[in-house]
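User: Okay, second chain of the day. Same drill as before: sequence in, structure tokens out.
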Amino acid sequence: MTPEPGEPRAGWVAGDVAAEFGDLRLLQLDVDAVPGRSPREIRQQLKDLSDRFRGAQAVAMRRQPVPWAYRVFFRQIGLDPDTTRTPIEAAAVDRLLKGGWRSQNIVDDALTIALIETGVPIWALDAERVEGSLGIRTAAAGEPLGRGAGAPPLPVGRLVVADDRSPVAVLFGDLARGHGVTPESRHIVLFCIQVAGVPTIHAEEALYSCATTLLQ
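Assistant: Same drill. Structure tokens below.
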């Protein structure tokens, strides 16, 4: 019998960030799953999603409430969504350029399926490399992204996702080297960023969908 995912839990948001972006939230969900090749059912699901997604949908998608909410937030943090695409729009462009979403592995496929089905982006970290709970804050001057050797310094004030020790990802950007899921990972932390206009139940559904796929 396939195990059921647990319940998502709220991360923290630093006070100065919460004061500026009052509706910004982080939700996380722990999953015990083994990375590897996606089973046939997941590969077929990804193919079916690709077949149903056409150019007209890509154009109309940005006007839908959830994709639009992320476009608005990108502008609030100084990103032009027509240049730096939101995750769902980047996935749409990838589908049109490549002719379909191609299966990569069970983790990346689960992230893609949840994103396409809900519009809510999710990221995955190796739980063994996360200390404490995740949250959103700004980076200090010269603070490194991650704890590995050669971790790049972050510009002061950059919005990051952090655990109790250090930043582990740039908000809507790269994960820190050495913190992502590897073939040796057995415990995974999924997290999503909820912005104004995205209902909590919608963000929870995205996490649950992703976790359910991982546990197949």
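The chain has one domain: 9-214.

User: Thanks, on to the next one.
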